[in-house]
Batch of 3 targets.
Target 1
Amino acid sequence: MRSIPRRSFLARSLAAAAGLALPAWARNGLAQPGESAPTPAAAFDSLRVERPSAPPDSLREGFPSVLLAAAGDTVLGYNLQDHFDAQLAAGQTREQLWPLYFACVRQLLDQADLSIVNLECGFTERGEKLAKNFNFRARPELVEILKHGGVDVVSLANNHIRDYGRAGVEDTIATLDRSGIRHFGAGRNLRVARRPCILERQGLRVGLLGYYFQAPPDMLEPAQIYATAKRWGAAGCYQNLDCIRAMVRADVEELIPRVDIAVPFFHWGKEGSYEVRDYQIELAHLCVDLGCKAVLGAHPHRLQGVELYRGAPIFYSLGNFVYGGIKEPSDRLSALARMRIGRAGSIEADLVPLHFTTWPERAFQPSVLDGVEREDALRRIAELSRSFPATLPQLATYLGDAQPVPGR
């Protein structure tokens, strides 16, 4: 993706303002020919977070760093596919609809060196439906929505990658490969599913790992979701905390010497809950202790609190993003996480608050919050983060008393 100018984010936070002027087609949920993607990005308004070992000017011009943008659960099938088909029937063309769903956030993803989402649906029209609570899939052609949205890489380590069996996993990976979208967290066996996705940006090597894990009583899915030595599926362990500890430790220790920046993406926690479970905290801290620069999470379909641990941001649940799993949710709040990470270990991070859908005006289109809505959203996320010893400076300002920033 296009890189933003490499000047201090702290300086930018004093210089730029958020504020969205959406064209009519984006407000109304319909694309019109010839109009470009809307919405300037909100200012990156966090304060700098630096590990003590990093030089104080490590994020200034001339020092290598990478801007990552990460978002949560993304489902392009189910209600979204129905909406897409209804717009086709109403006279819209595919070329008009491909960019629609990411229109209000596309510029934020374009500004990043690397944009990541959790793809919680397969791209397939084959396969046998697995017996479980919900099964998500999308027609393979709808991968164009990801391409037009500016997504670089997706995590497949989740409870829906094998909703339609081996054929569903095979078709999803083949579709992503043909489209040039990188992926991690699933594969033809567990060894392949555990492989990191390593990409180079701004001269730095970024390594991504993906895992699906839920401890009892959170787990509601069949064990068949997981890859084994002979089965296609997701990376992770079925309800066995000792197993996932050992797996994560082995994979992270093997990855750290190969990359400048390591980031795991977990699918974990209790669905529908704002509560961060002890096992989420344990696994996240393990990753940071081993050298990961940040930790990402999804699955609860709710935003959960953000912790700052030894200088590394931990986004326990990023909520929903371009999510066709529900039309009119009781809680529309979501967020895009942004992290500027330098080779020497310096990290800046913040959240861009979103409403992930507005039915029917902006169906399945995340929109950036502004003004009072944005302030209320950040205040709410700060409250969800209050129990942690430290959180992002952006959020700590809403808690009344500044939280300490622990370091290595």
Note: The domain at 65-397 is CATH 3.60.21.10 (Purple Acid Phosphatase; chain A, domain 2).
Target 2
Amino acid sequence: MAWWRPAHARINLMTLRDLTQLVALGEGQHLEFKHRVPRPERIAKEIIAFANCGGGRLLLGVGDDGTLQGVRDAEEEEFALRRALHRHSDPPVEVLTERVPISKKRDVILVVVPASPRRPHFLVNGGPEHLAYVRVQDMSVEASPEAVRLMRLSEHDDDVLFEFGEKEQVLMRYLDSYGRISVEQFASVAHIPVADASDTLVTLARANVLRFHTDAREDYFTLAYGG
């Protein structure tokens, strides 16, 4: 269950100057602006993406252009956020909140999303399929099957064993020539099913032979020692 600092015990750690400096960085991999809590599924998706990708911070009461607008009823906004996460994230994402006063009647709410040890988190939207999301630059995008598997297996990466066979040799030659490869590209050049290509790439990424990269268009893999 999410942890929330009760209002009576709230201690403001961020000053208005700190907030202004943070906003000046602009939206990116670990920072998002919202003028208020949007639709429950949408805010849950944003926070899920942060939790699945090393954490981040969301500022409620800040415009897309960085304008400090604030929210009139911070308690109501926090309640809406808490309810959205309770109903639409599985497992629930733990967050911290802090109110930063910008005027007598308005606050900006800082929502801190720690890197989650319980990932992957999925968006529950009432449909039959729950989707995971990840952060790519300043966007929250649907996680690929490989991203989900790597998150699930991240705690079991010790002593990963694999056989270096013909398809692995094809893979290494391709990477030597082109530097990166997707699941579909590997399946094509190695003449193997997509499922087998995915399994091989995930195994090599867990063994730290390959490095996995999320991308808005198509995830890909590179050699880990290639930087």
Note: The mean pLDDT is 90.
Target 3
Amino acid sequence: MQRSSELTYTPAWWVPGRHAQTLWGRIFRRAPTVPTRLERWDTPDDDELEVHRLDATHPEAPRLVLLHGLEGTIQSNYIQGTLALAQRRGWAADVLIFRGCGTRMNRQRRIYHSGETADLQLVVDRVVSENPDQSVVLAGFSLGGNVLLKWLGEQGTGVPRQIRGAAAVSVPFDLEAGARQIERGLSRIYTYHFLRSLVMKARAKLEAYPGLFDDTRLTGARTLYEFDDIVTAPVHGFADAHDYYSRSSSLQYLPGVRVPTLLLSALDDPFMPRETADTVMRLSEKSAWLLVEFYPRGGHVGFVGGATPFRSHYFAEERLVQFLNSRLP
């Protein structure tokens, strides 16, 4: 697919650098609050999924399925911003909240991870069965984008006909390379932020399931790699962090994608080494289904634009909605 967009991205002059772009939304943005209905869906393993649903303005409207990033929630500013754009177009939308990220802890031993696609499959199946004539588009941010791309690659030509397009924003693509990347320099601030909440959730699981992992080792964890080696890998059946990253990274699944898919990232993303971006671009050249838009600046799920802080806008959300709209009949 050729690069084509009626939108262009000019980074906001008042948000300089990759880290400011990455952190602006979390610290300063006041995203709109879009009212949604909370539903809890039973899973085959006697657990539940939390899905927040936005109703369409008319029965023929398309439906957008959204996936959040690591430790995201329904309140994540990029989720609310995208929901607001969908609402403006009259679309329906469903936000899948990964297990352990909802308003209450899930029941089973497992939580969520970057390679878990069964829950997305359940959501897609239900959405399609509810209205077989409705067009569906999919979008994921960061970890959610990795899950989305892995699922698309796994499904290949088996993706339901109702799915018209997909978009993945700020995906790490190579999980191990990304984990190593944020261990360096100022990027370690992200490690600290994520570890604080991940460790708290892991200990809550350990109280419910004694012996689930080695708590003594967890006390000494200082990186996401160490956390995944101690908790994520054994809880979810992987040999270690390297095995988890190797089997879960979406990079290897890109050649199997058979749905028009936008890959939108910034080359200064602190979560993605430049070597990974180069590999993604080479793979996309061999695919008729992947549209790569990698911009020089934008940070991680940042892409802040606008003349002033009071007239800010968020290019990634605008672009993914514009791209998905272009795929609709």
Note: The first strand starts at residue 37 and ends at 42.
